[in-house]
Amino acid sequence: NGIDNVLTYVGEPQPGKYSEALSLFVLQAGLKLLRDRRPEVMYLSLTDFVQHRYAPEAPEALSFYQKLDALFGLLAAEDINLGLTADHGMSDMSLENLEPHVLWLQDILDAKFGKGEAVVICPITDAFVAHHGALGGLVRVWSKGSVSTAELIETISALPEVDIAVDKERAVRMFELYPDREADVVVLAKEHVCIGTSRSKHDLKGLSGHRLRSHGSLHEMEVPFILNRPLNDAYKERAAAEALRNRHIFDYLINGTN
Fold first, then answer.
1. What own/partner pairs with CB < 8 Å and gap ≥ 24 does 243-251 have?
2. Given this model, what pLDDT does residue 127 score?
3. Do 164 and 193 contact (CB within 8 A), yes or no?
4. Of 128, 130, 149, 232, which residue is the least packed, with the fewest Cβ within 10 Å?
């Protein structure tokens, strides 16, 4: 937004990326921008470090939620339409001994079909290894040509950790995906299980002895969808008739409130 000296402007020190302070900083910056500039639309994106690290009832999580609530209240007090949602839910994916409950799918497919004949991609691979170590409840699998989609689905579906394994066409229909970006096979894990590529390729040191909490399966689909204004009659009917997605919050907030 062309703002120089952001830390001075907000009046807070630079937060670490693995901290609750990062999300609180974003909300504090948003509140100051709202009061100073009164933009027509503002989108504030928080991190999910606390939710990855701590269970919902953990003292650290409850303290964080109280701080969020206080800042949400200050935003709402500015007489704005305020919407709150998330990109995913979160599940514990660890065993009793704190080790992540992982299905190493690339290792299994290499042993079955030959090394590299099928390629497993973890879609939540990113630089935030302390959040999830690139492990989650969904992976995508491509065949290099010698293994058929049917063979992949048959092998993967038989694994006890797998909830569903479906081809591209079915995955696109089920989950409203883009066919030009989708894999040959989409795999989702059972509850409290995550799927990785090869054991040697995941850095789990960032978990620092904490239980792995992650997302991506059918069991983390439910998220908050909160508006601070009542819906008008037309959008009440829509909400009752359609499957609500988090992306709808912009439309509902701008067009659907009284």
1. 246/85, 246/86, 246/87, 249/83, 249/85, 249/225, 250/83
2. 66
3. no
4. 232
| CA–CA distances in Å: residue 10 to residues 56, 119, 240 | 29, 45, 41
**Which pLDDT band, with edges at 50, 70 and 90, does 49 fall under?**
very high
Amino acid identity, residue 44? Answer: L
In whole angstroms, give the CA distance from residue 252 to residue 16: 33
Give me the half-sphere count of Cα atoms (radius 13 Å) on the Cβ side of residue 40. Answer: 1
Q: What is the percent of the chain with per-residue pLDDT over 70, rounded to a whole number?
A: 98
Q: Do 30 and 75 form a contact (C-beta atoms < 8 A)?
A: yes
CB atoms under 10 Å from CB of 135, counted, come to 28
pLDDT of amino acid 54: 95
Q: Using CA atoms, how far apart are residues 246 and 84, in angstroms rounded to an integer?
A: 9
Q: Residues 131-141: pLDDT tens digits? A: 777 899 999 99
- The better pLDDT of the pair 207, 15 is held by 15
